[in-house]
Amino acid sequence: MLLLNAGVVLNKAFRKIMTDYERLRGDEEKYFYEQLRSVYMTMDETNSPMHVEFAAFAKRSEVRELMRLSNILSDNVNKGYDLAEKLQRESEVLWFARKKQSEENGRIAETKLTLPLMILLLVMIMITIAPAMMEM
After folding, report:
1. What is the C-alpha to C-alpha distance for residues 96 and 88, in angstroms, rounded to an integer?
2. Were 58 and a residue from 2, 8, 45, 66 both cysteine, which residue would form a disulfide, CB within 3.0 to 4.6 Å?
């Protein structure tokens, strides 16, 4: 987003990101970046457009969000609209979905902790009542 808003063309921004990754990665490899790197290498070797290679990567990975992103890139090439604005909206949608998923995971964890908390409450009641019962 930063490079696109600065006026860099999408292909050059992608190449810049990949060259920076190759320069800074060291021994640590990240799966997603390695897959993007393979897309980058295929682009260089076959001289094919980025949106075509990215669409093939999205289809291969079968990740819904990547497919939406590849459609945005293809629409940008075919229809020519403001890519930075569209990517910003997609980012907001994905952030909202991630937030919603986190809230759902929190509710599930809360539900799973209900039984252990009930058992703990019963144990605490037994500990406090036991001395009184022993004195009777």
Report:
1. 12
2. 66
Q: Give the Cα separation of 98 and 115 in Å (integer).
A: 28
Rg (CA), the chain: 26
Using DSSP's 3-state secondary structure scheme, residue 132 falls into: helix
DSSP 3-state assignment of 24?
Answer: helix
Q: How far is CA 85 from the centre of its chain?
A: 19
Q: CA torsion sign, 25 to 29 to 32 to 34?
A: positive
Alpha-carbon dihedral sign for residues 23, 25, 29, 35: negative
Q: Which amino acid is at 56?
A: A
Number of domains the chain contains: 1
Residue type, 100: K
Q: How far is CA 91 from CA 20, 96, 117, 126, in A?
A: 22, 9, 38, 52
Looking at residue 7, what DSSP letter applies?
T
Query: For residue 98, what pLDDT is reported?
Result: 92
pLDDT tens, residue by residue, 45-89: 888 888 888 888 888 888 888 888 888 888 877 777 777 788 888
